[in-house]
Amino acid sequence: MDVLFAGTMFESNIYATFMKIPVIMPKSGYPSSVVPIILAVYVASKIEKFWKRVIPDVIKNFLVPTLTLMLAAPLTFVVVGPLANSVAAVIGYLTQAAYHASPVLEGAIVGAFWQVLVIFGLHWGLIPVYIMNLNTQGFDSFMQPYFAASFAQTAVVAAVMLKTKDKNLKSLCIPAAISGIFGVTEPAIYGISLPKKKPFIISCVAASIGGAIIGAGNVKKYMSGALGIFGFPAFINPANNDTSSIPWVTAGVVVAALIAFAACFIIYRDEEAKK
Q1: Which ranges does the record mark as transmembrane (predicted)?
Q2: Are 43 and 51 in contact (CB under 8 A)?
């Protein structure tokens, strides 16, 4: 397996070639990414419009989708995907630079934007640094401010659940809040906070504050473990049972959750029914 741009932040493995052009993609592919998919659909839409203009109506229904896929698929793997990976690499590099400048600043940035990065699949620019730190140092402090984000997200959903008078929305909030406690926030994000906009923004701000606290404590995570409340044991050093990171990560989580809940409870209002 060849390596492209070795020694730079754009270093990537080449897993295959298409017409002698290297195909650069994450080892796991693109199942957790949104940006490559959005860009691929945009490119495909432009290709489809072109074919609709030049292909006769008699054979348009068959040839337009076929030719669109024939062009869009290789472009996705050769151009669109690597472009998205480069954006993720730049984000990872800038975050590392912020960490070296100030762990508190880096904690605030990671906490604020973690959920946004996850939505677009750009968090993969930070994951390699996290794994490398675990393998070389036995712990990671770089990415841990993200831990406050899921609790802030759960808190805003809990606030919406208590504040709303919409029975359907309330019924959605209950399972979303329960899954969020255990670190699975997709139902909360896509089902409630992101469509409502303000709760999502509040959760990002609260996670930024919690992330800054976690960064200030130089919190260390010693293993890749579970999420949510089950993630706390991963902050205990298994070599000597050192629990010095637990108070800091707990403080960051509690502060983020309290700020998110209070702010959302005060600000949130049900939307008026459209006539």
Answers
A1: 29-47, 67-95, 107-131, 143-162, 174-193, 199-215, 246-268
A2: no
| 2-4 sheet: strands from edge to edge | 2-4, 12-18, 21-24
d(CA 271, CA 275): 12
Residue 110, classified by CB atoms within 10 Å of its CB into exposed (0-12), middle (13-18) or buried (19+), is: buried
Two structure tokens written together for 174: 């209950």
User: pLDDT (tens digit, 9 = 90+) per residue, 202-218?
Assistant: 999 999 999 999 999 98
pLDDT above 90 as % of the chain? 34
As beta bridge partners, residue 12 has 4
Question: Where do we find the tokens 């994000």?
Answer: 189
How far are the Cα atoms of 110, 113, 144 from residue 118, in angstroms, in the given order? 11, 9, 15
What sign results for the dihedral spanned by CA atoms 221, 224, 228, 233? negative
pLDDT value of residue 179: 92
What is the pLDDT, as a whole number, of residue 262? 96
| Whether 111 contacts 146, CB under 8 Å | yes
DSSP string, 123-191: GGGTHHHHHHHHHHTS-B-SSGGGHHHHHHHHHHHHHHHHH---HHHHHHHHHHHHHHHTT--HHHIII
Backbone torsions φ then ψ of 126, nearest 5 degrees: -100, -25
Alpha-carbon distance of 58 to 8, in angstroms, equals 51
* Nearest in space to 145 (alpha carbons), one of 90, 225, 93, 204: 204
Residue 92 has pLDDT above 70, yes or no: no
- Residue-level length of the chain: 275
| Cβ atoms within 10 Å of 262's Cβ, excluding its own | 14
Cβ contacts of 119 within 8 Å, gap of 6 or more: 34, 189, 194
- Distances in Å between the alpha carbon of 169 and those of 87, 194, 270? 35, 13, 10
